[in-house]
Design brief:
The active site is at residue 450. Residues 354-458 form the Pyridine nucleotide-disulphide oxidoreductase dimerisation domain. By secondary structure, the protein is of the alpha/beta class. Helix content is 32%, strand content 25%. Strand 5 (122-126) and strand 6 (132-142) form a beta hairpin. The structure holds flavin-adenine dinucleotide and nicotinamide-adenine-dinucleotide.
Length: 486
């Protein structure tokens, strides 16, 4: 039997590591239990980092293809899929080694074992050699992450498919690929493969790609994908899957008609599910909703001494949220275990961002237009296209736009969306501004170096500031407005 810990964290990915580090820093006697053979978590081993390494390769390939526009004559090049994967694996190993070091040398104890609840206060640990022991703690943080959802068609398991875990072990590019799904995994991989010369078609259930983004942002990506030769089938329901000679086939229904697609391979990207199997959660007595533990704003489950964080709670399955939730859960678990009662730390989703690393990149922050409409919240919205922006023209990256959402009376910035070059970087200036409740007028007045991509943000800000001023005062402030610089 292990000694009684203040905090036991289950899972050593982004959320669990953040929870354990925070709990230990608060002075709690903390243990982290990790069951995987390889340390690192999803982001490092099969999520953010390998995909961004792959996308960097396909981006270079695309740049060579477009070289003529910039005055170069490029010879046709050949993609070496194995070499592209080898680079990704090398980077992943380096990131994983850093994380391994942090886990082993943290101010908490690391136990390499699979954990399952025996009762609400005890875990059964199963070690790699099959040995077992019990672990007791005053509080727990569940941070077991997510797994790829089961295929929507049972036949897929018979005919086989690729997914974001298995793709990293492949060695040969298929000639053609049907991607199932239209979320971040589907779009990032679809563009990666299409750019390397694979004939890609995508099947998305909803009317647009990237369902959590406003449809005007998704539309920019859809147009870019069509221009790159990716065939999109939106509003589609899957009917069946099977073999067609050497090829694989998918039948779908769209606008009432059956269609059949045939390709060498199928890539499954229809979402992820909280990883709770073999955790024996029923013994812990916590409530679930849509297969995820129910949590409040303190990341507390329905058992007051059990907290949860990261993909397992399924609120926003991205890393900065997993880390923030882990920190909140870790700090609150430590306070509770050490009897340092309230006030407990709360999660705040006001500054939630999501970025998709396709080209163009797509980013959102805070309030979306769809959410504002659904909540009946009046907002001012202003857009500005990259096609009218000097730096974007210089870079030859004119697709897309930026948009800002603001409160109509105060002009406070409430949200933003960007589809275009460097959206993943540009969004962070807006995050800083939203964090201090800045107004569109504050943004419009901030100095921006010329010519930069960042200065595009000032144009919709000026438009909103003008409209807010006009709302407040009958005298038009138009005479003060600046024209966009080219
Ligand atoms: C292809 C892909 C690309 C992505 N790209 C991005 C991106 O660019 N940016 C971004 O922000 N997000 C991205 N994400 C999402 C991001 O990877 C996840 O949101 C994040 O990694 C979740 O962290 P986590 O700690 O909740 O889970 P994980 O990192 O999965 O950690 C959970 C850990 O718990 C362990 N575990 C599970 N059960 C037990 C048990 N019973 N006992 C002991 N240990 C257990 C597991 O072994 C695992 O190590 C991507 C995801 C995918 C799939
Ligand atoms: N850049 C990033 O930050 C990044 C990259 C990859 C993944 N992620 C995260 O990982 C998680 C998983 O991503 P994901 O793309 O697998 O899931 P997702 O849930 O975001 O998207 C799945 C998509 O598949 C569609 N779909 C579901 N069932 C379908 C069916 N039967 N037929 C056709 N379409 C169907 C859905 O409409 C949805 O658009 C997400 O939460 C995402 O935020 C983030």
């Amino acid at each position: 039997m292990e000694p009684l810990f203040d905090v036991a964290v289950i899972g050593g990915g982004s959320a669990g590591f953040a929870a354990a580090r925070t709990a230990a820093a608060s002075g709690a006697h903390t243990v982290l239990v990790e069951g995987a053979e390889r340390l690192g978590g999803l982001c490092i081993l099969a999520g953010c980092m390998p995909t961004k390494a792959l996308l960097e390769s396909s981006r270079r390939w695309q740049a060579i293809r477009e070289a003529q526009e910039f005055g170069f004559e490029a010879r046709p090049i050949r993609a070496d899929f194995s070499a592209i994967l080898a680079r990704a694996h090398r980077l992943v190993s380096e990131f994983a080694a850093d994380r391994q070091n942090d886990l082993i040398h943290g101010d908490f104890r690391l136990i390499r074992a699979h954990a399952a609840f025996v009762d609400p206060h005890q875990l059964a640990l199963t070690y790699p050699d099959g040995q077992q022991s019990l672990l007791r703690a005053k509080t727990f943080v569940l941070a077991t992450g997510s797994r790829i959802s089961h295929p929507p068609l049972p036949e897929l398991s018979e005919i086989g498919f690729w997914d974001s875990d298995t793709v990293l072990e492949k060695t040969e590019l298929p000639e053609s690929l049907i991607v199932l799904g239209g979320g971040p995994v589907a779009t990032e991989y679809a563009q990666f493969f299409a750019r390397l010369g694979v004939a890609v078609s995508m099947i998305q259930r909803g009317p647009h790609l990237l369902k959590r983004f406003d449809s005007d942002l998704s539309a920019v990506l859809e147009e870019a994908f069509r221009d790159e030769g990716i065939e999109l089938f939106t509003n589609a329901s899957l009917v069946s899957a099977g073999r067609s000679g050497e090829q694989k086939r998918i039948r779908l229904v769209r606008h009432g008609a059956i269609q059949e697609l045939v390709a060498e391979e199928i890539f499954l990207a229809t979402g992820r599910t909280p990883a709770l199997e073999r955790l024996h959660l029923s013994a812990a007595g916590i409530d679930l909703c849509q297969r995820a533990p129910v949590v409040d704003s303190q990341m507390r489950t329905t058992m007051p001494h059990i907290f949860a964080a990261g993909d397992v709670v399924g609120i926003e399955e991205v890393v900065h949220i997993a880390v923030l939730q882990g920190e909140v859960a870790g700090e609150n678990a430590a306070r509770q275990a050490r009897g340092v009662g309230p006030p407990f730390r709360q999660m705040d989703y006001r500054l939630t961002m999501e970025v998709v690393f396709t080209e163009p990149e797509i980013a959102r922050l805070g309030l979306t237009e769809a959410a504002a409409r659904q909540a009946g919240r009046p907002t001012l919205v202003a857009r500005y296209p990259f096609a009218d922006h000097g730096k974007a023209l210089l870079k030859g990256m004119t697709r897309g736009f930026v948009k800002l959402l603001a409160d109509p009376e105060s002009g406070e910035l409430l949200g933003a969306g960007i589809a275009g070059p460097e959206a993943s970087e540009l969004i962070h200036e807006l995050t800083a501004l939203l964090s201090v409740h800045a107004t569109a007028d504050d943004l419009a007045r901030l100095p921006h170096y010329h010519p930069t991509l960042s200065e595009i943000l000032t144009y919709p800000a000026e438009e909103i500031a003008r409209r807010v001023a006009a709302f407040r005062s009958p005298v038009s402030p138009d005479s003060e407005s600046r024209e966009p610089t080219a």
